């Protein structure tokens, strides 16, 4: 510890909060004032403290960064995807932070995607957008929209240079290579073209950062003349816009956490009035896919894990059942092609793809050999195709792209992301690692799955260090994924575990429902049960276990720190939602009202208020012997505001001053952290170095 860098101490300014007869004094509420010089000064002081406390890890961070870099094929090219008369793909170049988006014309007789050696540009390529050129002069860069018109002439794209996810939308003429004068600031994700590319639909947000309006822009006209196609006044609902794969309809998706409504506009008549496919009904969720004469409806009306129906595309009305509800098999999405449908399903905690031929043929699942894996559709823009492009990975198998022949049912591996030899010169060998599924017993008797990956020969006597990762909200599933950066941990004897806690969607809709609203504490107790199970089963020990999670998973980290500080030696909380009650009490903040159907409404319901107060990490900091905590945030994050972890760390220091707490704030980034790939690798190296240091102290 250095004597030159003082431990940050945030000033205390008592601010009262009164709800339902309960008065709370918040001494750090002032940190929410982003433009206050004292706020920035405090964040900078925390950054200086974090730098000083981790200065001894500089060499290890460099080593870990170099391991990621050396194992990554830096000059690379994605598998080209055919759309119309072109192959579309993205290249990366060694030394450059961002991708280069390209296309190349399909040549006579060419049916297979062209693959270049070592990521070299394809002969005859056209560069559509170079992220490195766009990012010049900016500390942060992100693309929002990237949408080529149906005729291949125009590219709609949007950029964010601060991380606040407010994008400026532009249009590029791909024939001339020149940008059009059309420029629309303040847009959100999502665009859709009309059939003739004369009109572009886009989305904007309200003051609470809720996507609430869909607009119609006529190419070549002033943006001041753009028309609002749909304005959503109900603050619980978001809107989005998309063009169907058939290119027949523009769909406006309107959804809260538990209720949906979809509007359709013929893509050939973009000025037409949107037609409601089915009016919203509270608690009924549905999504729409166009297929020939019908709209396919994936819904939960009387079907907890969803069922599939259809209605007329010409005159939407009653829903005709197509696939009945099957409890335990969650239907997650349906994709329509001219001659087949593809369902993405989830069963027994694993994803799968189910093919339904149209007009005859057997419904069948695409089989994969590994017991733990993740599979899903990749880009499949062509409506008429005899092949499926899919993506596959596992805890030991790098990201892989396959084509699936719908007639022969053969899988063809097009590309597996290469893992180059590390600094020791040894090639990656998947057989040197094992993946395993364990089940922990929760407090209420529920079995909670845990996925593990580790190097063969790792001891089972409690001596192995372990990282346990969790999320557990919004029905998001933490399905098995491969990570080059994780290899640096595994090769040092670290076990990596994923706790599939309730609140996620791994075991279907009920798994989600049992970890939200007034059942939210199940998420936290499940995670603690998983940590205790790993120690009891000899995988690790509490003084060898580091927990990690981000965003809503950061709420999980803060909650378990209060609930079971003895279960961990360290906790990594990235962009953590640790001041949840104060945030959900403030409807003026981004996303608050839309979140009430996930957490409850503590403004209106005293039971929800008391329940949230009983688990929110910031509210429950106590004089405990906390594990070491590394909190990471971004100043321009609009999803979880920077002041949540800032307040949390300040209160931890004040209430439990003997603890080891670090706060690292990216001053030019958003929710996803640094935007460039090298910067992201450095951040991962920072986290992993801190984690390994915790193990060394055990």
TrEMBL record:
Residues 8-416 form the Peptidase S9A N-terminal domain. Gene3D superfamilies: alpha/beta hydrolase, Prolyl oligopeptidase, N-terminal domain. Keywords: Hydrolase, Protease, Serine protease. InterPro entries: AB_hydrolase_fold (IPR029058), Pept_S9A_N (IPR023302), Peptidase_S9_cat (IPR001375), Peptidase_S9A (IPR002470), Serine_Peptidase_S9A (IPR051543). Pfam families: Peptidase_S9 (PF00326), Peptidase_S9_N (PF02897). This is Oligopeptidase B. Coiled coil: none annotated. GO terms for biological process: proteolysis. Residues 481-695 form the Peptidase S9 prolyl oligopeptidase catalytic domain. It comes from the Bacteria. It comes from Micromonospora phaseoli. The keyword Protease applies. GO terms for molecular function: serine-type endopeptidase activity. PANTHER family: PROLYL ENDOPEPTIDASE-LIKE (PTHR11757:SF19), PROTEASE FAMILY S9A OLIGOPEPTIDASE (PTHR11757). Belongs to the peptidase S9A family.
